[in-house]
Amino acid sequence: MAQFWKPGTEKPRLLEDEDGGVVFLSSSFSSSSSGYGFASIEKQRQRLPVYKYRTAILYLVESHGTTIVVGETGSGKTTQIPQFLKEAGWADGGRVIACTQPRRLAVQAVASRVAEEMGVKLGEEVGYTIRFEDISNSDLTRIKFLTDGVLLREMMDDPLLSKYSVIMVDEAHERSISTDILLGLLKKIQKRRPELRLVISSATIEAKSMSNFFLSSKRRRALEGEELRPSLEPAILSVEGRGFNVQIHYVEEPVKDYVQAIVSTVLLIHDKEPPGDILVFLTGQDDIDAAIKLLTEEARGNGKTSSGLIILPLYSGLTRAEQDLVFSPTPKGKRKVVISTNIAETSLTLEGIVYVVDSGFSKQRFYNPITDIENLVVAPISKASAKQRAGRAGRIRPGKCYRLYTEEYYLNEMSVQGIPEIQRSNLVSCVIQLKALGIDNILGFDWPASPSPESMIRALEILYSLGVLDDDAKLTSPVGFQVAEIPLEPMVAKMIISSNELGCSDEIITIASILSIQSIWFSIRGAQKELDEAKLRFAAAEGDHVTFLNIYKGFLQSGKSSKWCHKNFINYHAMKKVMEIREQLKRIALRLGIVLKSCETDMQLVRKAIVAGFFANACRLEAYSHSGMYKTIRGSQEVYIHPSSVLFRVNPKCVIYHSLVSTDRQYMRNVISIEPSWLTDVAPHFYQQQRLNPNIH
Ligand code: CDP
Ligand code: MG
Predict the structure, then answer these.
(1) ipTM of model
(2) 175: CA distance to ligand 2 center in Å?
(3) Structure confidence at residue 375 (pLDDT)
(4) Cys staple from 145: which of 128, 212, 457, 685, with CB 3.0 to 4.6 Å?
(5) Which residues, in sequence order, are bridge partners of residue 202?
(6) Cis peptide, bond prior to residue 487, ω within 30 of zero
């Protein structure tokens, strides 16, 4: 096992010594979140750093179109500012205060926290909306939390977002693709609705550049000439708080296996350090599950440290009960270890954290317009993220952060800031949304950060091939408008629309529902063999999509039984979610004139509908490859079938994948076999005849 760092030889250093430094939170924080009586919650509210800025915030919102609030994570921005606004009357007269978040789980968590603080039932005065889940009431809800993506969708019905008096764009530093689109559009709306107030809030933002973005060029010129009234300039407020020092520890040598390093570090902290919970930053569900398994085993084998650890995961897709466990106070004498994705970096605050273990990585989306490949990659985080992560240890008292990378790496190699998502994403969804909102000149759109022209051209090309855009790059009627209306990726939406003509909409809507949740399998640690056997019971020769149909049928035949799910390693909660999504998609489809029709056993129709949406993801098996190597037909990129697919090792000649994940190789997840000739049938301009050389027939 690698030596990570030697206790006693570490070089403690204060975060404040670092370049720029991190501002810490106020020492007046309550360390206890127990006792959820109304009075105690009121006291907790008053202790939050933003409380002191209540009057200032309300004054600035009153007198400025845009107010930028910068404050450390946990200072109360998300939970308090909407309440301040409501108390000041911004939700009177049927108006609504909106607060957007990039992440679904954060929307749910903060909405329920705010409902609790206000002593109201979630879904009434305080509500939330995420895709496929609307816990709000159009008559009662005054404070509404929603993902930035959902607010963009609302613009399709109400382009000026007229019911909202204030829109708080939260976590703006994350620069998610939807946040950036939203900021560009809100700037436009403000011109038409001067009474609309915007609050842009974030943990670490370059407030000045965001402020410049909200100044129009005319205003900027006027400002330079000092003719401008102050209220036209965005206000910037920094929520200060004196916090606790965090000692940073680095490893001495680069770490080879960060899951193993995390386990050793957690056990070391548990063994040597005084009480206090541990927050571990890992990349995704797979890693987190692996770390939990290893940690549980090693803790068990290590008598001294085995007792007292409560080990919990934190990632999107957790059930409500699992989320509650993470947020609930740690019982006396115990130590909580929360192993999280970067959702706990700024979106969510856990009480009681004193130690942070930072792997130095997160899962990030990357898109290459040349190869037209987008995938999720485990990639190094930026210094800004590293500082945020460390800061989580200093909330309630002085803490420690253990970085599983060397100090030299941190100082010399880590990038200062992350790249905005819009500059590393496939822009297909983004382009169609803007087109649907009537923004025709997309390159000329006022972006907070401009996407690359290559990515834009790629997106336009695919949308044209999908029949969504016409020769003038306008939405086609009806297909383009229908695709824009369906709240799913354009390729999935096109698959649904094509299924109508093919007569298999019933099956395709089921497939689309299953594809829109993370996984329907229940992975029990250490039971991979049993899981594989369960998969075989449903496996279809055509591939994963048809396998999903078999599972769905089985679930219905069992009377939607949880026992049946358990027996077959299927996640019952996920299946219930699938049923809900399916109902909603059915309703949307009906509205678009798509009649639910089953093709019974004719799976060729189902596969053709998939091709109609996903033709761009077609790959062929390399003729003489025994290693299962495929190449994408369009870009000749090397890809492999993911071991979780029922087609793993089956290796049909020609396949279509739903998504790619990249680890040591590029793996295709959710794969279906197809006939190559279908590609030229549905997308002749994308696959001109000569491209399909004979060896794929
Ligand atoms: O948005 P910001 O990071 O500035 O802070 P916040 O999310 O409003 O959190 C303020 C306080 O509320 C923190 O002390 C959190 O611990 C607490 N909180 C909570 O206990 N449970 C939640 N679900 C959300 C926040
Ligand atoms: Mg927040």
Answers:
(1) 0.97
(2) 14
(3) 83
(4) 128
(5) 70
(6) no
